[in-house]
Amino acid sequence: CRSGTASVRAELQLVAIEAELEKLCFAGAVEEHRGPTRLRLIEREEKERVRVLRVGLICGGPSAERGISLNSTRSVLDHIQGGDIHVNCYYIDPDLNAFAISPAQVCSNTAADFDFKLASLAQGFESLSDFAEHLAASVDMVFPVIHGKFGEDGGIQELLEKYNIPFVGTGSSECCQAFDKYNASLELSRQGFITVPSCLIQGSEADESELSKWFARNQLDPKSGKVVVKTTRAGSSIGVTVAYGLADSLSKANAIITEGIDSRVLVEIFLEGGSEFTAIVLDVGSGSDCHPVVLLPNEVELQFHGSVDVTEKDAIFNYRRKCLPTQQVAYHTPPRFAIDVIESIREGASRLFQKLGLRDFARIDGWFLPQSIHVTSSSDSKFGRTEMGTILFTDINLISGMEQTSFLFQQASKVGFSHSNILRSIIRHACVRYPNLASFGSVSDYAPRRSKTSMLNEAVHNCNGTRKVFVIFGGDSSERQVSLVSGTNVWLNLQAFDDLEVIPFLLAPTTGDSSNEFDVSSRTVWSLLYSLVLRHTTEEVLDACIEAIEPDRVALTSHLRNRVVQNLMEGLKKHSWFTGFDITDEPPVKLTVEQWIKLAKEAQATVFLAVQFNIITNV
């Protein structure tokens, strides 16, 4: 965490400004024609100029996703703290007790690492009301980073609204409707979208007769019909499972209810043969005008290697696959769909964002079903029908995951936003809604991380006074995924220093050709563009590199990216706080280890070895 360094830097800036003001006052005493009135105006302008936005990050919550929340908060803290933003961190435990926590606690591996120490090490609040009163006096803007219950269901938003505390994101009533999957599905149907046929089960016991009728209406075999059983109000990663037939569906629905995960359970038809996608929506409108722009969506491809049992194949894109290293998932940005389908996904997600009254940003998940797969609908005129197939929106994530390699940052980096830039843009946009924060929604004096080229030769030979740093990670060892995480964190943190030109590299895993296993100098190294680093495994990074240089993919990505940037600029150009995109996205470069070492010597680069094995040091 850089919070300590950022705080010291901010204090030094204030000291420097105070010194300048003293000079101005002294000059005013000597040169009387300037007058005391002008001096007071100058002093006020200087203080206004350096006013720091106090942001409160709230993480934790009662759901099983509080570990994801902690990871997201750590990432947000790291990328927004400093300059004109000061961050305070808060934690809500499973019993909805609130605590003020330190940056060091945010950097714990899991919530369990400090849960038991909260009473003695953190500032606790008597009640949520006391907590809200503290927030009203201590922060200018709250950024809720609670996933699932109390974070996305309108709970924390309702508390903040009651005490007139500005916050990032959608309002409480809109959250309440959008978070409940069943209610959201009904509303989407009313708004003209095709939805997945579903049956709601609620109460202490599932209603067998009602579910049996639903199976019959959707032509599902009561003994083996394949369905998805999931909670309606527990996020998109928790309590989702596949069931076969009526009895299995009832059993799994009752398990969710009796275990207290949720009192409302949704049974949906299984979308066999479909492709899952997820899309980030960014609102770039002014004031109360909503102008949602959908970034480049991700296609989520589940992969299975070798012999896999039925249970594993039926596993949904769950928390483990979404947030942890696994070779069972691959991402494609943009999706491998026809361009008309991708544009329809973007149009639909944008329309959904507006129809449901969402604010600032959101992540919307869905499925694309080829033409051969039919989904029943009361009207073929509803949104989602294309010549190529059917688009369905299934999950609305009001507080998208914000871990270092999350979909938010993958998609944002594809169109030119660094981590810091996209997060600060979201916060600045939220400020525009509140009159007392209008000055923060105007010109920002904070200098964002300067644009650094991704073109390898230009970066290496650019004589601009910066020191070159090569960060290399990956390899073949069992710790290669740890290497990726370590190298990514080092690369991201060093990006903050303007006197460094930091270039990430992947030591590619071998392809199984034992003849080259010990010929280290011929091993492959890839120079990576910003967006390609943001993956969960080294295998994903390698696959993304190969895909990024395929001519057809390059042409498609360039076309769609230009269109998204154009859409973004239509809204962002009206905001004086937006200082532009700060990263470029050029194709990766393939090298041998020998060529990479030669390049490092030519650039006089400092090499940071994040490879968890001594393969490089043996060269």
Automatic annotation (TrEMBL):
<dbReference type="GO" id="GO:0005524">
    <property type="term" value="F:ATP binding"/>
</dbReference>
<dbReference type="InterPro" id="IPR011761">
    <property type="entry name" value="ATP-grasp"/>
</dbReference>
<dbReference type="GO" id="GO:0009507">
    <property type="term" value="C:chloroplast"/>
</dbReference>
<dbReference type="GO" id="GO:0071555">
    <property type="term" value="P:cell wall organization"/>
</dbReference>
<dbReference type="InterPro" id="IPR011095">
    <property type="entry name" value="Dala_Dala_lig_C"/>
</dbReference>
<protein>
    <submittedName>
        <fullName>Uncharacterized protein LOC110768402</fullName>
    </submittedName>
</protein>
<keyword id="KW-0961">Cell wall biogenesis/degradation</keyword>
<dbReference type="Pfam" id="PF01820">
    <property type="entry name" value="Dala_Dala_lig_N"/>
</dbReference>
<dbReference type="InterPro" id="IPR016185">
    <property type="entry name" value="PreATP-grasp_dom_sf"/>
</dbReference>
<dbReference type="InterPro" id="IPR011127">
    <property type="entry name" value="Dala_Dala_lig_N"/>
</dbReference>
<dbReference type="Pfam" id="PF07478">
    <property type="entry name" value="Dala_Dala_lig_C"/>
</dbReference>
<keyword id="KW-0547">Nucleotide-binding</keyword>
<dbReference type="GO" id="GO:0008716">
    <property type="term" value="F:D-alanine-D-alanine ligase activity"/>
</dbReference>
<comment type="similarity">
    <text>Belongs to the D-alanine--D-alanine ligase family.</text>
</comment>
<keyword id="KW-0436">Ligase</keyword>
<keyword id="KW-0067">ATP-binding</keyword>
<feature type="domain" description="ATP-grasp">
    <location>
        <begin position="185"/>
        <end position="428"/>
    </location>
</feature>
<dbReference type="GO" id="GO:0046872">
    <property type="term" value="F:metal ion binding"/>
</dbReference>
